[in-house]
Design goal:
This protein is an alpha+beta fold and 184 residues long. The chain has 4 helices and 7 strands; from the N terminus they run αββααββαβββ. The longest helix has 13 residues, at 8-20.
């Protein structure tokens, strides 16, 4: 009769060691901290302002909590304050320059916002026009139209220009001029 190799008992222990050494303990569930936050529960409402700033890869929307829906002027005023410290840490900046004179924004009719600039549109960076237009389009505009269908009319030199320049904000946060015959 042959005697078993001295390592056979040790080989029999390997599967047992692997099964018990996988990190699963026999303890009961443990407290892990506070529940997740930051995501709105279904059926609740929260007011927020959507503002557009420029980031390393183009325009970026950011939201800020508010106690009520903001009118176009209120949203633009918040935009003109610039990005918060947390937004700046994410690389967001504003291309809207300081202007001599007050920039105003009003909801003119259902689905239309008039922005009165103290300068000409040509004096603004393209990103600044998009920041203003998309922030206004995402404010509380009468008519319940989606922001991508809100007409933003820029009046130059505080309304002393012959005709407004009309744009719409696309889903990516870029303003595009409306051409003659474009759908309204």
């Amino acid at each position: 009769m042959r005697t078993p190799h001295p390592c056979v008992p040790l080989l029999a222990l390997v599967p047992l060691l692997v099964a018990t050494g996988c990190g699963v303990s026999t303890t009961a569930p443990q407290e892990a901290g506070a529940p997740a936050s930051g995501i709105q529960r279904p059926g609740t409402s929260a007011d927020h302002a959507r503002l557009y700033f420029v980031g390393p890869y183009g325009l970026r929307a950011t939201t800020r909590p508010t106690d009520r829906p903001l009118l176009p002027q209120q949203a633009i005023d918040l935009l003109l304050e610039g990005p918060t410290e947390a937004e700046r840490q994410r690389g967001l900046i504003s291309e809207v320059p300081a202007m001599n004179g007050r920039l105003t924004a009003t909801a003119a009719t259902a689905g239309t916002v008039d922005i009165y600039l103290p300068v000409t549109v040509a004096e603004l960076q393209i990103a600044a026009v998009s920041q203003l237009a998309c922030t206004a389009a995402h404010s509380d505009v009468p008519g319940d139209r989606p922001p991508t269908t809100v007409d933003i009319r820029f009046h130059e030199n505080l309304g002393r220009s012959p005709a407004p320049w009309t744009v719409r904000c696309d889903a990516d946060g870029n303003a595009h001029p409306l051409t003659e015959g474009a759908p309204r």
